[in-house]
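REQUEST FORM: STRUCTURE PREDICTION
Request ID: SP-0412
Submitted by: Lab K.M.
Chain count: 1
Length (residues): 521
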Amino acid sequence: MFLSRCVRAGFFVCLSVVWLTGCSIGDSTDSSGVGTPAVPGNTPATPPLEEGEANRPKWSTVEIPYAYAAMQEDVVIQLNEEPRLHSPMRTIVGTGPQAYTVFFRQPMDRSSVEQAIRDNAQAEAKREDLGYVEPLLTFHWVHDQQLHVLAELPKPKTSENEWAEYRLHVAGAKTAKGSPLAEEPPDFRALVMLPDQVWRVSLDGKEQEKITDWNVSYNTMMLDEDARFFLVSRYTRYCECDARYPKLHWLYDNQTKQLISYPGELLDHYQGVGEFVADPRGFFFATPPAGAEVPPSDTAATVKVDGYVYGASFSKDRQRLLMAIGTAEQRKDLDFVVYDLEAGKIERRLPGVMQGVVATSEVDDSLVTVRFADDGQQVTFAMRESDVSYTENRYRLDWKTGTVSEWNPPVPADTWAGYAASDDGMYQMYLTAGLFKGSEAVSDYLGQGFWLPGSHQYVYVKWESTNDRQESFLSLHLFDADRKQDRVLRTGLPSTFHLLGVSRDGNWLYVSSNRDLAASK
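STATUS: Completed
RESULT:
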């Protein structure tokens, strides 16, 4: 029972779950209905599933060790698929049946808990036009302080629907001694959305292959032209707002089909203290705290430099790091540093050549990471002229001479000068100025896209609409910069279609969408 919704996601810091050994209390029971009344100190079993309900999805109901004595709230509702997500929480979950574990600070009246969860879910579902549904609920009590809940969506009325939401809330439940819980105990709001999948689509648009089968939506970034590795992240909280909440991060190995979890942020550019980890597969992360489990890797390298790193990027061949370094308080007139990853040392340091200040975010006043763009012939980068100016001081490093000089792209000085260059550096697609061949304008900005390797052809997506403007959709285009010719590769694509990258041979595009691209062919 999904509805259509525009998504702008973000998330709040999620509390860490305490994993300590606990004691088993009482008996283990199942219930898909209201349980039998509880007697303090001796809560009886609720009825098991009837034989006719045997087709209900199975889920693990093994006791999860938990430190009940350390609980700060009366209840914690945890998503079993990702235990770092727990109440109080509103977050995105998968479309399949979702398993939760409810931990209580004190023994509970089981029937009152089950009834409270059902009543609260029903109350939310009655809110008109907000997309709330009443899930199908199955209960399994491990003991009076631990309840497993399986929540399933009712069958959707149409495959075109994109989202639904339900609420798990125990307000109104009573303890085994008959005392009510706090008026508003922490709840868990689950937003169910059709997950984006990664697809491989032939350049001519005639073939497509789905290469992931995720049950929940991830933000995805392709790291290499072999499409072996992808950076994958998931917001911990959701809201229809511009809040910037933390994410959970993984590295997806497309060869082994594994999501590899990391203890912290995985970034394509780094900002932070002078000790961090750079992995030439295409990402950075801060040095984990002692005791944190980090996946083994024969490519990751620990980098140690003096000072604060205001920005670090990989060179085009990923053999070096390009960095802006100063003291933690400096923020201006930084050193430009080239670091050799294989040798593990600084290859070149040019003190103070990055004249200007580090920009701050207009959203939250945080420092904006300094980024470097390497096209194989030159490295370009910029600083702000001052704290009160949008004007950029722009620089370029010439790889052949090793010197840094002023860079003057065909972009207004108070406009961001980011661009995507063709492999040979002949053409640049500027987000704010369009396509250029050096200083010669070729066309307006075409759209988000990629250059095909070893070519002057740019593949991109573009919003279009029907003649009566009643319907909008995306089309996939290929622009030949030499001939200034544009052709449509595929049209009628869903709004959730996103380009992720291009294969090394230029024959395949990697994209994401929550729609069946084979059906929309």
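NOTES: Helices lie at 110-125.
Reviewed by: T.R.
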